[in-house]
Amino acid sequence: MSGRPPRRGTATGRGTVVGRSTVVGDAQLPALFRVADAAAVRRQRLTVDWVRRQLVLLVAAAACSATPWRWRVGHVDLLAATSAAAYVGALWFTWQTARHHHRENWQLHRSAAELLRSHCWRYAVRGSPYDSGLADPDGDFEVRVNDSLHELRTAGWHDPRPAGAAHERALITPAMRELRGRPLAVRRDVYVRDRVMEQRDWYRRRTGESRRAAAVWQSVAFAGTAAALAAAAARAFEWGTSMDLVGLASSAAAAGVAWSELRQYQPLVAAHSVVAQELDTMVVTMPKITEESRWSVAVRAAEDAISPDHTAWLARHHDAGR
Fold this sequence. Notes:
The chain is an all-alpha fold. It has 2 domains: 158 residues, no CATH class; 140 residues. It has 10 helices and 4 strands, in the order ββαββααααααααα.
């Protein structure tokens, strides 16, 4: 979603003019969503940065060990000492990553943020389970959201809200309440444009980015493996340099594989592509809905398709099918 400038009124398929001035983005969602989203981004950055440093140090250590040259200062070989220091640094980053649980916290904060975003959109556009037939949609929203957050807290998520404070009403923002009170045609237009289309475009971008990154790191792993094979063959026949290229090339190939596994490029290409196709279909079909009951079900289907759990399932399904 984005806070882009609003569009002007446009004719609908029923011949009436619907105002498109309402824009709902992350800024119109509750503060708890933004806190969880920022924490997820921060933890993701830490996870990626620390693993990147660990892999760089491992390759650097292998490079220092592989060289046949010696750079001595007194009785100390500085290249060997540098290699040992790089291994110590890699161990330190491994220990710190496990100690601070960056990856687990990244996933918990992301789950909390996406859960809040999905519930807020469902409430704002009267999607299931917050459809027009509810006697107390606000109360039902608060109960469902807080129950879901309690499950995340049980799993280890840190709720930034003060313990015991009554912040439930703050989960429903004026923008959400205002959109919920609008006619179906307006809610439908805003949801398709600011939620479904935005998510479709995001999944399309991520598909392209992941495909390019997967190709790069597959090439790195292939080149490293091929270089290690060539170096091993050369060593077997006593050809070429005394430099230990086998260990260095193997380390580079292993780093490429480890990085691809961390980022899950290949599974996400397939998963994001499928979700983008599902949302592309919904962009076409949802504007044609004119009944509240059908609309409620369609919103639920869209939110289910967008959910990280659905993407993760698709990624696992892709891995299992290979």
